[in-house]
């Protein structure tokens, strides 16, 4: 199994630097990293060039508003791995992130991860490197009250359990909720992504197009949604949310219009009209 990590980025170079540092210091060595930029900022280009690492590719495109799905498709096409892990450019992976995705990967299945979201204080400490990712992870339980005072969201999703731990197996046995893709942390076989023709580039606003839509189409082909919660963890750095009712309404309407389409027409391959 060769693993490609695809990082969706837009201008936030300091966050990307934290992500790259984490990916290059994993318990399981990374095979390939693709920086998938939805834009073409000079800062991102200069940073990527400074890395001088043969494992890292940087892809950019003209900045024409939100075109994350197009950038992701270009990254998939350029990838050499047979297994793909997707994360967002404001999500720092735990040191065990790649190892957990690899250990939990199964044929004909997607791994659905989650993220903990510390508040402004802890996010600032991580961004300025006053707090290392390693220390954040190792002191996660003992810092419970400080994290709660900081307004952390999804605290439970920052608790790490080894993929083979008895407690994790017990949780999965008794957990009744369905697993769903969250675009900032999931993985799948490249062949399964090709089966649905990748991400639908008709989605030109965040939410839905980069997770709910591909999940719907993969389920149609019998691809299972498995959980990697508590094992393949990421830290989502604080920022103001851009989602609103207008975005939600428009994306839901587009989803409704596409409810009977399972291999998108405007994806990895473009259907000629």
Task: Please sum up the structure shown.
The chain has 273 residues and is α/β, with parallel strands linked by helices.
Describe the model.
By secondary structure, the chain is of the alpha/beta class. It has one domain (3-117, 156-257): Spore Coat Polysaccharide Biosynthesis Protein SpsA, Chain A (Alpha-Beta Complex), CATH 3.90.550.10. It has helices at 13-23, 42-51, 68-78, 97-104, 120-127, 133-138, 144-149, 166-174, 190-195, 212-220, 245-257, and strands spanning 3-9, 32-37, 56-59, 83-88, 91-93, 109-112, 115-116, 185-189, 224-227, 234-236. The longest helix is centred in the last third of the chain and has 13 residues, at 245-257.
The total strand number stands at 10
Identify low-pLDDT runs: none
**Widest β-sheet, arrangement of strands:** 3-2-1-4-8-6-9
Category by helix and strand content: alpha/beta
Largest sheet: 7 strands, mixed
Level-2 CATH architecture = Alpha-Beta Complex
Q: Please report which band the strand proportion falls in: under 5%, 5-15%, 15-25%, 25-35%, 35-45% or over 45%.
A: 15-25%
End-to-end distance: 37 Å
Domain module tally: 1
| Annotation field: number of helices | 11
Q: CATH first level: which class? A: Alpha Beta
**What is the H-and-E element order?**
EHEHEHEEHEEHHHHEHHEEH
Average pLDDT works out at 93
| Overall 3D shape | globular
Q: Gyration radius, to the nearest Å? A: 18 Å
Looking at CATH, the homologous superfamily is Spore Coat Polysaccharide Biosynthesis Protein SpsA, Chain A
- Helical amount among residues, as a percent range? 25-40%
- CATH topology annotation: Spore Coat Polysaccharide Biosynthesis Protein SpsA, Chain A
């Amino acid at each position: 199994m060769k693993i490609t990590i695809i990082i969706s980025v837009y201008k936030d170079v300091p966050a990307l630097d934290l992500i790259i540092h984490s990916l290059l210091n994993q318990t399981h060595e990374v095979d390939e990293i693709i920086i998938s930029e939805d834009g073409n900022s000079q800062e991102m280009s200069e940073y990527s060039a400074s890395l001088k690492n043969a494992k890292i590719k940087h892809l950019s495109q003209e900045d024409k508003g939100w075109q994350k799905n197009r950038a992701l498709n270009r990254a998939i096409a350029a990838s050499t791995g047979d297994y793909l892990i997707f994360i967002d450019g404001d999500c720092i992976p735990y040191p065990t992130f790649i190892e957990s995705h690899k250990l939990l990967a199964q044929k004909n299945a997607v791994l659905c991860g989650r993220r903990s979201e510390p508040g402004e204080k802890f996010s600032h400490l991580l961004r300025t490197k006053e707090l290392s990712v390693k220390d954040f992870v190792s002191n996660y339980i003992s810092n419970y009250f400080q994290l709660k005072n900081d307004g952390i969201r999804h605290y439970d999703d920052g608790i790490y359990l080894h993929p083979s731990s008895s407690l994790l197996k017990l949780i999965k046995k008794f957990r009744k909720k369905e697993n769903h893709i969250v675009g900032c942390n999931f993985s799948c076989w490249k062949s399964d992504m090709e089966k649905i023709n990748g991400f639908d580039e008709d989605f030109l606003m965040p939410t839905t197009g980069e997770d709910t839509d591909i999940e719907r189409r993969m389920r149609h082909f019998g691809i299972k949604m498995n959980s990697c919660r508590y094992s393949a963890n990421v830290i989502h750095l604080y920022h103001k949310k851009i989602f609103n009712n207008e975005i939600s309404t428009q994306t839901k309407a587009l989803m409704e219009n596409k409810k009977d389409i399972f291999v998108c027409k405007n994806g990895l391959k473009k259907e000629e009209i």
